[in-house]
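An example makes the point: we print one protein in full, the chain in one-letter code, the fold tokenised, without further comment:
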Amino acid sequence: MGMFARAGAMVGALGLVASLALTGCGTEQKKNAQFVGGTAPATSAAPDASGTPAEPGTPAAPSGPPLTVSPADGGKNRPVSSEISAEVPGGGKVSSVTLTTANGSRVEGRLRADGSSWVPSKPLKYGTRYTATVTATGSDGVTSQGTSTFTTMAKPKSVISSGLYLFDDKTYGVAMPVVTEFHPGIPKKDRAAVQRRMFVQTDPPQPGAWHWVANGTQAYYRAPEYWKPGTTLTVRIALAGIPLSNGRYGNVDRTATAKIGQAFEMKVDNATKKMTVYEDGQVVRTLPVSLGKKKTPSSSGTMVVMEKKESTVFDTRDDPDPANRYVTEIDFAQRLTWGGEYIHAAPWSEHVQGRQNVSHGCVNVSMANARWLFGKTKVGDPITIKGTERTLAPGNGWTAWSLTWSEFVKGSAVPVPEAGEGSPF
């Protein structure tokens, strides 16, 4: 309802705090997400140095020169975000990686899709010694192996705070971006390294890309088009222990597995002051609306429902303009921006809905229509508003869809293939 004023920060090294605070509204929501991901890489039978097939499930006996493994043998104070890699000459590829602790316990993980490194499925432990054994096969069929024993660093004192706005076992709308948040923001020089540790897998497979908000406090991941209904999103923001150039380290890994539900979309045209509602691409209802008046216009652009509250209080007494200060009980509120724009019931404006804009930036609908919408929508459902006096500001809400795909990929810290990135594994 008010002008742009972000409330709440993502804080905490022990658990995710996702705060969607109502602007001037005195209520907020906190949730936690937990997920354990990753599988151990498979090994396959291969001939030993004499050409005799090995037992099934055992790695091939090395016959080529030793590999140089990273982290280097004898390395100390290595980040717990370390990945295992090796220099493989002659265009060869790593075929298996084994990582164990000093007591012989095996660490699970998997190779990246491009074979560049092997990623542990969980952060390594601080102050712990590990031994990595890497086996690779050259283009000539020669098998090589290398071993490295290294020790991780002590737990750092200076860390960033981070958040993931996605939660286990929840169902979201087709426009739900994967949203990460950082405090303080990630410096530009670190974003490529951080982005390579932000893993998204989709089932069925769909390409996607990351986009950083200018100050580095948020990054969004989306596909070229809305997600297919029924998609499963598996996300790991693997930042625990990753070193940054400002002397800080990532605090924790954030993980979640969630579903995408039925396609539900809202489109609002200021010219007609109508909202057209679609389910699975078919028009199901048209609703009269009242948008923001000229002094407090609604934002034009594509937004997503960020939060839903059946009842709440809008409190804008801290607004610099006395004319915009009020305390009002609100029913069926659905947040669209950090700046305070919502879809909500507005019985006081029903007599002008469909004809005149009188709100402070929100999408006003009748009590009956607000109740119906509230029962239909999910967090992540898209709403597009057009024809108002203000354009949606980047970062004012989950603005991943306010850009075309070609514009969106320009915000990635690493080059993006034309079709988008595939699965990292």
